[in-house]
Specification:
The protein has about 450 residues and is of the alpha/beta class. It has twelve helices and 24 strands. α9 links the parallel β15 and β16. The longest helix has 16 residues.
Length: about 450
């Protein structure tokens, strides 16, 4: 069943979930809490997920993955989305091209064949940037998606005069600069000069007539980082101005063509701690709202981050995981197996068990990766941005501590777990000045 039930009131409801990493099936178990969560998703007018698995029947060719392991699955995983009422997905994430361009384009065809709207990836940059629309008798939603986390070359490129564009994801690039003391910067410049790194650029200098990485460069590029002198050490990040302008332009266009506009952003980059978003992500999210977004849905770090309200619109900096079956991946490339020391070929379980040191490290060792919140945003129809919306917050657990074949499937949390999860989310959100009301096992935010 797709698309959820029709709205019975003068408002539209949007259910939001995080990373959908189903690789084998039965995304929802038989327990009452699982079925109640599924019913909640189906009941919303629109339901969103970040599809972080290439579920096309293993079409394509594996690409060397620096992010951990290849996430690919059979097409039945997409049927699981339909069964949960998910009618719109983001394909802009760091696993979208795990099976290369053929794998991505095959997945987009599979989604289109099932009537699931997909945003954030396409055959060229314009297609990847453009909104996807979902229309229901009660109203319409536009979905735009981008990712800050990707391997260079996986971002979509525009068509040229002689050659077509490059398929890929919609990028939100950023710049990171490290502030160091003048003494520290002088040491880095000395290392560059005295180790011979500067000398290796002689050929480039001869062609260009100058050394763009030389002594006068500010900030100073060194071993992949950018450094500048400051009174005290620190770090700053800024979103790429061209990417921000291009995404904002499509948000403004969508604002005129749908009742609600949802912007999805996939980002692994943290702020001061893993629980905080990077500064450039906060800047982007606020700019998206100012351009016309009703909801900004973030995901990527596989754990909850706080909620900010900007101009009366909610920004979810990370919605965590909604389905996490990474360890049940059925097929892995040789390069993944080679990441684990072994004197012989190993099985899928052997690979994941060795990588996690039998669940003593990695996602399986920490409870925060196995719980989340599903927000349901109830907002006025017809793009009426002058009436308040309400966010209902439903705590969810994914079976932390259970065997790999049982965990990773979501269900509504027990009363005790739900209260704890909501209190933690309230604390995370308090840093943004957001108040989360707790009552009856659920949370609520009223958007003034």
């Amino acid at each position: 069943m797709t698309g959820s039930g029709p709205s019975r009131h003068s408002q539209l409801s949007v259910a939001l979930t995080g990373d959908w990493m189903a690789t084998r099936g039965a995304a929802f178990g038989a327990r009452p809490g699982a079925q109640e969560l599924r019913d909640l998703l189906i009941a919303a007018d629109f339901t969103f997920a970040n599809l972080e698995v290439v579920a096309n029947g293993w079409q394509g060719y594996p690409v060397r993955d620096p992010w951990g392991s290849t996430l690919a699955a059979g097409t039945h995983v997409l049927d699981g989305l339909l069964e949960a009422g998910v009618d719109m997905v983001s394909c802009a994430n760091n696993h979208a091209l795990d099976m290369g361009v053929p794998g991505l384009t095959a997945q987009l065809r599979e989604l289109a064949g099932r009537g699931i709207a997909a945003a954030g990836a396409g055959p060229d940059l314009t297609s990847a940037r453009m909104p996807a629309y979902v229309d229901r008798p009660a109203g319409s939603v536009a979905l735009l998606a981008c990712t800050t986390s990707f391997t260079p070359g996986q971002e979509a490129a525009p068509a040229g005069l002689q050659l077509p564009g490059r398929p890929g994801v919609s990028p939100l690039r950023h710049r990171q600069v490290l502030d160091v003391t003048p003494e520290q910067l002088a040491t880095l410049r000395a290392i560059d000069r005295e180790t011979g790194l500067a000398g290796q650029r002689a050929g480039l200098v001869a062609m260009m007539g100058a050394d763009p990485w030389g002594e006068d460069a500010d900030p100073f590029p060194f071993l992949g980082g950018l450094f500048r002198a400051a009174a005290a050490p620190g770090l700053s990040t800024t979103a790429d101005a061209e990417d921000l302008a291009a995404i904002s332009r499509w948000i403004r266009d969508a604002r005129q063509r749908a009742d609600l506009v949802v912007v999805s952003v996939h980002t692994h980059e943290p702020g001061g701690t893993e629980a905080e978003p990077a500064a450039f992500v906060r800047d982007f999210a606020r700019a998206a709202v100012e351009a016309g977004a009703d909801i900004v849905a973030g995901h990527g770090p596989h754990r909850l981050r706080g909620i900010e309200v900007h101009q009366g619109r909610p920004i979810f900096y990370s919605l965590g995981n909604i389905v996490s079956q990474i360890e049940l991946t059925e097929r892995l490339p040789a390069e993944d197996y080679a990441k684990v020391p072994s004197g012989r070929p190993i099985t899928q379980f052997g690979f994941f068990n060795a990588r996690s040191l039998a669940d003593t490290c990695g996602l399986g060792a920490y409870g925060e990766y196995w719980e989340t919140v599903v927000p349901v945003v109830t907002a006025p129809q017809a793009g009426d941005r002058h009436r308040p919306a309400v966010v209902g917050l439903h705590p969810v657990t994914l079976g932390f501590g259970q065997p790999v074949h049982r965990r990773g499937r979501p269900e509504l949390a027990s009363a005790a777990d739900g209260e704890r999860i909501l209190k933690e989310l309230a604390e995370l959100s308090g840093g943004f000045g957001t108040t989360v009301e707790l009552a009856g096992g659920t949370g609520r935010i009223v958007l003034d």
